[in-house]
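Blinded run. Sample ID left blank on purpose so nobody reads anything into the name before looking at the predicted structure. Input follows.
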Amino acid sequence: MTQLSVNLNAVAQLRNRRNLPWPSVVGIARVVLDAGASGVTVHPRPDERHIRRTDVFDLAEMLAAEYPAAEFNIEGYPSEDFFDLVDQVNPQQVTLVPDDPAQATSDHGWDFRGKGNFLTSVVQRLKAPNRRISLFCDPDAGVEGVAAAKATGADRVELYTGPYGGCYDDPGRAVRELATLAHTAQAAHAAGLGVNAGHDLTLANLPAFHSAVPYVDEASIGHGITADALLLGFAEAVRQYLIVLGN
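Blinded prediction complete.
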């Protein structure tokens, strides 16, 4: 069984188009958690083009009061502002990504060997009781890459599934991408790391991913589930994703 964390960035981006209080990020978080999601994910960026800093605090307050068993996962680049936010909010999971602030979205994992010393210091700074640290991971990181990730002290890696998600019109390439992801997931599991996954996963491509890639503890899904929710409603979209993930 793979847990589902719903990324709320797309909800916030829609709200920000009119600078009005709807759709409510906190309100949609309630909907997805009531429908069975195990947690919610946010990736606040310095320009606040989707999730705002205030959203992070509002979500943390709501989760603590109403859903104490739910996981709050905060993604971001380890800047001083990010450290400060994590210290104040104390989420259950922190996912570190190597994004430039100007990037539209995450599009690559960490260079675990080249950035090993940096990541080790960051992981140790963020470690706290009842908090796990996950590192964004290229699909082809393989045995050597995940060994270097493990050496940082991180608890999990998050497989970047964007290249697989981009194969919607190329079934042959999709098979190759799944094999690459499966190899890295197996290596991470063998190294003692938990495995998360995320980026461009949808109801259409998630079944093949879930069948081919072992040991995935959690899928963080935002854009795809939001697109499906436009047709199905958020609660039903969550329920259908949970069925695919074996929940």
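Unblinding after everyone has recorded impressions. Residues 138 and 160 are 5 Å apart (CA to CA).
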